[in-house]
Amino acid sequence: MASHRRLKICCSITALLFVILSVVVLILYFTILKPKQPEAIAYPVQLTKIELIPFPQLKLNITLLLTVQINNRNYGSFEYKATTAHVNYRGRLLLRLRSQAVRFRSRKHNVSSFVEIMGDKLAFSPQFWMDLGVGSFNFTSLTTLKGRVKVFKILKMSATARSICDVTLSVRSNSVNSTCYSKFKL
């Protein structure tokens, strides 16, 4: 009789601890561990170099510095493998920029890369001379990062971060204006 009572007490305490532990895990998931959208802040593109050589062979080399700040508000990390960014001019692929694999831990992380645009490819575009006369060029860049989100090395999910930027390069004023849109999908 006493052992039956002890068994009931032990099972009740175990069930109560299981319920309390389940409630604590649910509260932690919905308050702290729930995946949040990271903030991607694309800083204005900086023009670092323009080199125009009209003679004996036309050369136009433009070097830009692209910087993106990722504010990972999650308690996990985002890890992606090597990726490729594409830059288009008037619908034509102008360059591909390859990046190394990166792991974003929680909190803020800056990613910077230099892009060198070879103007020789630009010169063959029919609109190039019109844009050169106006003094500005319009580019579109597209970057897609596919990777995994890890929380405490236990919870692992696939994720995709995508960024599209419209860039206007003014040759006369030696400046760049850019507008970027970012999206993160779990």
TrEMBL record:
Gene Ontology BP terms: defense response to other organism
GO cellular component, as recorded: membrane
Source taxon at top rank: Eukaryota
InterPro entries: NDR1-like (IPR044839)
Subcellular location: Membrane
Coiled coil: none
The entry's keywords: Membrane, Transmembrane, Transmembrane helix
Record has Transmembrane helix as a keyword: yes
Keyword Manganese applies: no
Official protein name in the record: Late embryogenesis abundant protein LEA-2 subgroup domain-containing protein
